[in-house]
Amino acid sequence: MENNGLVVKEDTIQIIRGDMMKVLYFAHIKAKLDRTEDQFTFAEPITVQQFRNHLYETYPIIQSEKFQIAVNEEFVRDEDIINNQDTVALIPPVSGG
């Protein structure tokens, strides 16, 4: 894309517009990654399963971890779609007592 004579990549425009997916980590996943959140951007909407695969490639240390994924505070299935503007949370199993 050209903007006033400058060539600007589409992914750069997404970042400038704030189209970045916010990912929140909790409990043992947060501890393993030593971070509370990340931001990702993808060229197009992805499925929850594609997102999960991306996480496993980015952070192999969590491949054996059990967690559910919530998008915008709603639990989702692997075939559901995630967009760059969404907030995604990795929710580990919770035990009470």
Automatic annotation (TrEMBL):
<protein>
    <recommendedName>
        <fullName>Molybdopterin synthase sulfur carrier subunit</fullName>
    </recommendedName>
</protein>
<dbReference type="InterPro" id="IPR016155">
    <property type="entry name" value="Mopterin_synth/thiamin_S_b"/>
</dbReference>
<dbReference type="InterPro" id="IPR003749">
    <property type="entry name" value="ThiS/MoaD-like"/>
</dbReference>
<dbReference type="GO" id="GO:0006777">
    <property type="term" value="P:Mo-molybdopterin cofactor biosynthetic process"/>
</dbReference>
<comment type="similarity">
    <text>Belongs to the MoaD family.</text>
</comment>
<dbReference type="GO" id="GO:0000166">
    <property type="term" value="F:nucleotide binding"/>
</dbReference>
<dbReference type="GO" id="GO:1990133">
    <property type="term" value="C:molybdopterin adenylyltransferase complex"/>
</dbReference>
<dbReference type="Pfam" id="PF02597">
    <property type="entry name" value="ThiS"/>
</dbReference>
<dbReference type="InterPro" id="IPR044672">
    <property type="entry name" value="MOCS2A"/>
</dbReference>
<keyword id="KW-0547">Nucleotide-binding</keyword>
<dbReference type="InterPro" id="IPR012675">
    <property type="entry name" value="Beta-grasp_dom_sf"/>
</dbReference>
